[in-house]
Amino acid sequence: MHKTKIGLHTFMAIPAFALFSLFFLYPLAKGIGMSLTDWDGISAAKFIGLANFKEFFQDDRAINDIRTTLLFALGSAPLLNIFGLIYALLMDSKFKAKGIARMIIYLPAVISPLIMGYIWYLLLQPGRGFIYHVLDNMGHGELFGNWLGTYSTSMIVLVLVNVWQYAGMTMVVYLAGLQAIPGELYEAAKMDGASFNKRLRYITLPLLTPSIRINIVTNIIGSLSVFDIVMSLTAGGPGYATETLSIYIMRMCYGSKTGYSTAVAIIMFFIILIPVIAAMRLTRAKSEY
Amino acid sequence: MLKLRKVLSLIRYLSIIFICLLCIIPFGVLLILSLNTPKRVFYEGNIFIPDFYFLNYLEGWIKSNIGNAMINSAVITIGALLLIVVLASMAAYTIARFNYKFNKLIFAILISCMMIPGIINTVPLYTLMIDIHAINTLWGMALVCATNALPQSVFVFSGYIRSLPIEMEESAIIDGCSWYTAYWKIIFPLLKPAISAIVILNGFGIWNNYSQAVFFLQDSKKHNVPQALSVYFQQFAGAKWNLMAATAVIAIIPVIVVFMIFQKNLMKGLTDGALKG
User: Fold this and answer.
1) Same domain, B49 and B179
2) What is the complex's ipTM, to 2 decimals?
3) Which of A159, A286, B33, B210 could form a disulfide with A75, with the two C-beta atoms 3.0–4.6 Å apart?
C-alpha cells in the first residue's frame, strides 16, 4: 500500500463504479421504491405501502412458485455437489485420456441451459423420444410416461437435467481443490493403515472445504434463480406448477404488474440471501477445524 | 491385494466411460435428429443411421434468425468482455495498490453485491433501459452483462495484482512515469492469466444469457442466440423435430468450437479463478 500524490491513479476505480452504480445500485434502490407502488408500467404510480408483499403471500400461485423454487434448489444443490465430488474423486488420478474425459464431462456446462432444456425436451417426448425408445427396446416401454406432464415427475426431470448439465462444473472446482491437497498426507495415512473412508473423512473432506464452500454457494444462488431450463423444458407447466420465482417475476412484469414484480424480486432476494449466509457460516466453522 | 486394486481401477475406468457417454449421448441423438428427413418418424429402421438430409440445416438457417443472432451475441459478448477487462482491472489496480478510503468503500460495496443474481433488479433496470434508450440495443445489453460480472472480476483482478511485486512500478515512478502509465505499461501486460480466467468464466454465460435478453432484447433484429432459438422453437415446437435439431446444432457449434480451442486455458482459468474466489 502506498502513500502518494493524487493523480489519475486515484480515480481508476471511478469508471467501474459509475457503471456499477448506474446499472446495479440505482436499479436496486429504484426497485425498492417501485415495490411500494401499484405501478403497471404505463400510468402514474400510486404509493400503496406494503400491499404488494401482502398480496404475494396471499397468492396461491406465488406460494406454489416459492415451493417449486425451493424444491428445485433442495434437489439440485446437494446432488450437484455429491455428483461433482464423486466425478472428481474418480478423475483424481493420472490416466490416459484424462484431459478428454474432463473436457467431455464439462462440455454440457458451456452450452446454453435453454438449448440443453430443448434437447432434453426432445429426448423425453412420450411415445416418440429417445428415452422411450431405449426403454421400449429393453421391453419396458410401459415404464415411460409423460414425465413432463405431472408436477412430481417434471420436478424430478428439471433437477436431473440441471444436475446432468452442471455436475462437470462442480467437478472441476473439486478437482482443483483435490490437486491442492499434498500427497504426503495420504501416504502417511496409508502407512498408519487408514481406510479409504477414513482418509476421505479426515483428510479429503476437511481440506476440500474451500471448494465445497464455493460450490455450495454458487449452486444455491444458481438453482434458486433458475430460469432457462424451466422455460425450455416445461415453460412453468403443467399450468403454473413448475413455475419458478424468476419466471414469475418476468410474467408479472409483462402482465402490467411492474410494481408487484419488483416486490417479488425483493422477496426472492431474501430467499437467496438466507441460505447463502447459512452456507458460508457453516463452511467457515468447518475450515477452522 | 493386487488383484483387488486392478478390479477397482477397472471399475473406475468403466464409471468414467459411463459418465462420458451420459454427457455425450444427448448431443449424438440431436445430431441424428438433425439429419433425418421431415417425413421420417424418429424410430423407423435403425435409429443410429440418419438419412443424412442436410437440407434441414439450410431450412433452419433461413427460417430462423440464428445467423443474425450469432452476430448479435458475438458483438454483445466481445463488447462486454472488453469493458469488464478494462474497467475491472483498472479498478482492481487502484484498490490493490492505494489505501484510499473510497477505494475500500467501493471494494466493500462490490463484494457485498457479488451474491446478488441479476434477475433481482432486472425489472427496475428494464425501466432504466427504456429511459436511456438502451432497450433493444446491443450496447445496452453489453453494458448490462459487463455490470453483472464486475464484482467478481474486480475481486479476482485485485487478488492477482496484490500477488505482483510493486518494485517494478516504483522504479518506473522514479524514472518519472506516472502510476497510471505504469499500470498500463507494466502491470496490465502481466495480467494475462487473470484476464483469460475472467474471459472464460464470463464469456459463455454472456453468450448464453437468456433471462435478461428476454427483457432487454425483444426486437427480433436484436435477438441473441437463446432468444432467437426460443422464438423459433415456440413457432415450431412439437412439429418439426428435424428443423429444431438442426437449428440447435447450428447454435451450439460455435460454442463447442471455442470451447475446444480454449479448453486447456479454461480448466486452468476455472481452477485458478475459482480457488481464489
Assistant:
1) no
2) 0.87
3) A159
Query: A17-21, A48-52, B79-83: which has the minimum mean pLDDT?
Result: A48-52
Q: Is the pLDDT of residue A23 over 70?
A: yes
Number of independent structural domains in chain B: 2
Q: Do B115 and A272 touch (CB under 8 A)?
A: yes
B188 CB within 8 Å of a chain A CB = no
Partners of B116 on chain A (C-beta within 8 Å) are 28, 269, 272
Closest-CA residue to A196 (of A97, A101, A90): A90
Which amino acid, residue B277? G
The whole-number pLDDT of residue A137 equals 78
Residue A286 reports pLDDT greater than 70: no
d(CA B260, CA B263): 5
Which of B56, B74, B101 corresponds to the end of one domain? Answer: B56
Query: Among residues 217-256 of chain B, which lie with CB inside 8 Å of chain A?
Result: 225-226, 229-230, 233, 241, 244-245, 248, 251-252, 255-256
Question: Is the domain of B165 the same as that of B194?
Answer: yes
Q: With a CB-CB cutoff of 8 Å, which residues 46-75 of chain A face chain B?
A: none
* Structural domain boundaries enclosing B92: 59-276
Residue environment code for A91-101, b if the CB has 16+ CB neighbours within 10 A, otherwise e: bbeeeeeeeeb
Is A176 a domain residue?
A: yes
Residues B49 and B123 in one domain: no
Which residues in chain B touch residue A272, judged by CB atoms under 8 angstroms apart?
115-117, 120
pLDDT of B82? 97
Give the DSSP letter string of B112-135. Answer: HTTT--GGGGHHHHHHHHHHTT-T
Query: Is B83 in contact with A19 (Cβ distance < 8 A)?
Result: yes
CA distance to partner chain B, nearest, from residue A139 (Å): 15
pLDDT value at A288 more than 50: no
Q: Is residue A200 part of a domain?
A: yes
Query: Quick check: B93 contacting A, CB < 8 Å?
Result: yes
Range of A85's domain?
48-288
Question: Within this chain, do residues B172 and B79 fall inside the same structural domain, yes or no?
Answer: yes
Per the domain annotation, does A247 fall within a domain? yes
Q: Which of A8, A118, A232 sits opposite B178 (nearest CB)?
A: A8
pLDDT band at B42 (very low <50, low <70, confident <90, very high): low
Determine the Cα–Cα distance for residues A216 and A208; give it in Å rounded to an integer.
Answer: 12
Asked if B211 lies within 8 A of A228 by C-beta distance, the reply is yes
State the pLDDT at residue A285: 57
Mean pLDDT of B51-55: 80
Same domain, B32 and B161: no
| DSSP H stretches of helix in B42-137 | 55-63, 66-83, 89-97, 101-112, 122-131
Task: Work out how many domains chain A is built from and give that number.
Answer: 1
Average pLDDT, chain B: 87
Q: Is the Cβ pair B233, A118 closer than 8 Å? A: yes
